Amino acid sequence: MFSQLRVIWSIMRGHRLRYGLALACLVLATVINFSVPLVGSATIDYAVARRAVGADTPPLIGVFLDALGGADFLRAHLWVAPLAMIVLTALSGLFSYLKGWQAALASDGIARRLKDELYDHLNHLPARHHDRADTGDLVQRCTSDVETTRQFLASQVMEIGNALFLAATALPLLFALHVPMTLVSFALIIPITVYAYVYFRRVQHVFKEVEEAEGALTAVIQENLTGIRVVRAFARQDFERAKFAAPNQRYRDRSLHMLRLMSWYWSISDLVALSQIGLTLLVGAWWITQGTLTVGLLFAFVSYLGIMLWPVRQMGRILTDLGKTSVALGRIREILAVAREAEPPVPAALPAAFSGRIAVRDLRFAHAGTPGNADGRGALNGLSFDVQPGETLAILGPSGSGKSTLMHLLLRLYDYTAGSIQLDGRELSTLPRKWVRSQIGVVMQEPFLFSKTLRDNLRLGRGDAPDHEVEAAARTACIHDTILSFEHGYATVIGERGITLSGGQRQRVAIARAVLKRPPLLILDDAMSAIDAETETMILDALRERRGRATTLVIAHRLSTLVHADRVIVLDHGRIIQTGTHAELSTQPGLYRRLWQIQSNVETELQAELKK
Asked: Using 50, 70 and 90 to split pLDDT, how confident is the model at 373?
């Protein structure tokens, strides 16, 4: 338990002063609350029962009698006692409110900082981590786990302080009133506390199972909603419902198991707490008949039991929530413990811009966990080529030949395991990722658009781009007229992941976004697969007019996209098997000519069918 408290103490940095203020308010509220039973006890014994003040009067009772004006004054003005109790209770409530307010401000500040740290950390984790991570589970950790932590910091931390303060002050106070009665009143307090601790130790693993089950459930929901169109297109609603039922049932079973354990705790603690009150009343009543205890003192002890039993019983709940919070914090710290993308030391002088010269030498790379790692082969196996500034290089190859992997390495999403990539003579691995990515505009195979306006999506790479440049980039990508046809034009808000646009429209917006960035290096990774041939020709013509402004790497399966490139390299199993211009490769035996003949024949047959 103490290790968990140390972790909680560490995340309180920056907000410990507020917790100190909350603790001070707690102490004041508790001290004032302890005064109320003493006022009642003094009134019952020395005003109502007219007991004489003497040597056997407890010192604390004497203090309160003097504060109330003395026994004689109190007998003549009984209304003073209830008024004093009301005022003290109100003051206790005021300080309790201030305690809760300060703790809430602190906990909300900590939760906000945790979310900011998690979000920032996730944005700087290596691509390999995101390849393995479950999006739904990450969302669960950033939301539900942080909220669990916030709730504990807002309320239960103060309850721990309350319990400790009660234990430190109540015992001396009660011993000062009546030692035997104190021993009777605390006879079952220690068993309740021990039971609460044992309970916490036994059920802590259950909380982790519940959190993991909820994370798995969230992952299924997130995946289903992301692919809802595919689900409906294949009429898979029943299958998805059945798939959802299993993690839903698992979460329900884990939650019910935890609730059963908690119900056992509350039932047993209720029995013990009521037994403690019953024992105090029975023994107190017997001692009153024997003359060794007064009614006022019994009232005080029963009142203090009412004040103390709830926090003691809450220790089980506090320890339960501490267990849940420690699990939640453990899951949060698992993410924060993952090393960020390693950055090399920033060179003394970075070039203001990249000219576009690329040199690749004996480049090798294998994805973690792929079969290629076992036999020494990977996604790239000894790749070597050069690209001159302003050149358009086309890259062709079958699926899995390493085309997209090469793009990922250029963006430093992954780091190559052997070989070299140099930008303007500087080794890529020695350059900061942020600088490298600022020099590259990329259109990926599956363009991602945010649920914002089209103008905001286009300005993703250049937030300060003026409207006329935004429109010029849209014209280059042949999307300007389409955007103007929308009711709100460039202010049109598109759905999540650009779902309200067609596949071709998303690709054209992504091309415009990359062009607007005006990067020294433009990478088009199968960027026109969903665009019709006529529009593709228009886009390629517009890009050709920009030739020489940027080095361009074009990755495609459709050879019509590659015809006008300065040079073409053909990949197979991570190696270059052909290189040359379109005119050269279309006449040489090999993969390029075979693909050119196949695609040309298909287009010829299609044109013939259309003319019929």
From this structure: very low
